[in-house]
Structures are given as C-alpha cells and as structure tokens.
C-alpha cells in the first residue's frame, strides 16, 4: 500500500530533524572533546612543572643533608677538607656507601689543617718533623732554625734543644 503524501512528508521531516539533531550532537561532542583535551594538556603541563619543583626541592634537601653529614665527618676527623666535594657527591648518590666508608675511616690527627710540609727561615729549611719538634718543645722556629744552622744542618741539634 502506498503511503499518503502527508505521511511521506512527516517521515521526511522527522528524518531531517534526526539528521540535524545528529549533526548538532556531533558538533557538541567535538567541542566537549576539544575542551577536555585542552584541560588535560594544561593539567599535564602543570603536573610536569610541579614534579620538576618537587625534584628540585628534593635535590636541594638531599645536598643540604649530605653537606651537613660531610661537615660533621670533617669536624670529627674522619674526612679531610680536600675530600669534601667527593664525599658530598658520594653521600648524595649512595648514603649507605658513605656511611660504610665512614665506618671504616681512620680518624685523622687533629690540627691537620695547620700542617706544613716545610718552612724556610732565612737560609735554613725546616722539615715538617722539625717544625713539630720546635712547636712541641716550645722553641720559636727562628731560634730552632738558628740552632740548626750552627750545628751543621741539624747534627747534634737534639742535644742543643734538650739543653736549652
């Protein structure tokens, strides 16, 4: 049976409305999708920035803690000041290895920062041992150097220092 022209017209109108509604819905979905993707990109960027800030803060805190531990070890005579940079790097990289190193470290003699290998006084060169002897016997270095010069560069010097 053939459809009445009015029914055909109503059917065509409904089909057209469905197509318009589908097109509008599709456009709205695209708009929402774009908004969501934009928000996701912004949140991802913000998250990456926050991660970088947290990482930088953790690095600063780790370096501060490592530096404090190294300074304490230097103060305790377990490290020399010359080992500072190496020790901070080790402590930051592996706190357990640093602790193990300190556990096995030999305590350095106090006063190491004032150590002199030798000193020239006038024409006489005093060795580190001679500087230590003069210091420990309360003999001024200039006087010790003069005694060393008089005794043919140190032969019999111990007797002179002892009899002083």
Order of helices and strands: HHHEEHHH
Radius of gyration: 43 Å
**Sequence stretches where pLDDT stays below 50 over 5 or more residues:** none
Instruction: Find the structural class using helix and strand composition.
Output: mainly alpha
> Main β-sheet, in a few words?
2 strands, antiparallel
Number of domains: 2
- Number of helices in the DSSP assignment: 6
Q: Biggest sheet: strands side by side, in what order?
A: 1-2
Q: Which shape, going by the Cα principal axes?
A: rod-shaped
Give the distance, in angstroms, between the N- and C-terminal Cα atoms. 143 Å
Rounded mean pLDDT score: 85
Count the E strands: 2
Helix content class: over 70%
Could you tell me the strand content as a percent range? Answer: under 5%
């Amino acid at each position: 049976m053939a459809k009445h022209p009015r029914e055909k017209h109503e059917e065509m109108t409904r089909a057209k409305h469905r197509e318009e509604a589908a097109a509008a819905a599709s456009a709205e979905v695209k708009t929402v999708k774009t908004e969501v993707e934009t928000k996701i990109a912004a949140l991802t960027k913000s998250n990456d920035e926050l991660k970088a800030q947290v990482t930088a803060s953790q690095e600063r805190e780790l370096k501060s803690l490592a530096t404090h531990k190294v300074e304490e070890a230097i103060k305790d005579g377990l490290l020399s000041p010359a080992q500072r940079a190496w020790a901070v790097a080790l402590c930051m990289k592996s706190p357990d290895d640093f602790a193990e190193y300190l556990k096995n470290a030999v305590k350095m003699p106090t006063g190491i920062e004032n150590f002199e290998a030798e000193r020239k006084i006038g024409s006489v060169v005093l060795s580190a041992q001679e500087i230590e002897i003069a210091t420990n016997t309360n003999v001024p270095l200039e006087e010790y150097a003069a005694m060393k010069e008089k005794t043919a560069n140190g032969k019999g010097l111990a007797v002179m220092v002892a009899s002083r």
